[in-house]
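Please review the protein record below. Let me know how this chain folds according to its tokens.
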Amino acid sequence: MIEAPSLEYVISHIRETRNPMRGILLAPKFDKIGMDEIIPRFSYLEYRTSDKINFYCAGYGGYWNDELFPDMEKLKTFKYKDGSSIPWAFSQTEFAKFIDELESKTSWRYSGGTELIILDENADFSNAITFNIEKMITSKVLANSAELFEALIQRSRNSKNSITGFSSSSFGKHTSEAFVESLIELLPKGIKPLKGIWIKGQHYFLNDLTKERGHSKRSWITGRPK
């Protein structure tokens, strides 16, 4: 679990690291799913995912002070796999700024609830999978957000189905669809047999979210034409 006080910070961190799977987590403290299901599990998710998945937590940060972030809401101190402990906080202002910047740089639009955007190995939004976690829970295709996170953890550890295959340069949406189907196979037994239980366009979206600039599409990270 990685702090994401701004989109600029996320871009900088992605450039410096090469984890094969990356996700932008939009789970604000004022949302019930974020508050009740995700925040209390930060240490657990960090321990289980840190070497396989980078989850960027929009609007959250560590070692903040109220001079720089006057509306910061303190959370508990979370322990990391390397033994360090970091006091985390959430800012509604920084979360709102993050949403504004992400919407300005991509074609994605925020639903208002808890979402997870999974990026392929290029991490440029040209082949993104967006999970509307709130809709998935209210539609009863997930019992809770933990089921999705556990499926992602198991998927990232499966060497036979490496996330490196999830790339727009090779199979595009076909591979993205296969990736989603592989997650369904990893759901608890009571849900797994129901093929097609996740509805594309309602529970998840497969999109090229890069924004047009003139007559070309450019990477949100490098600025290079796609």
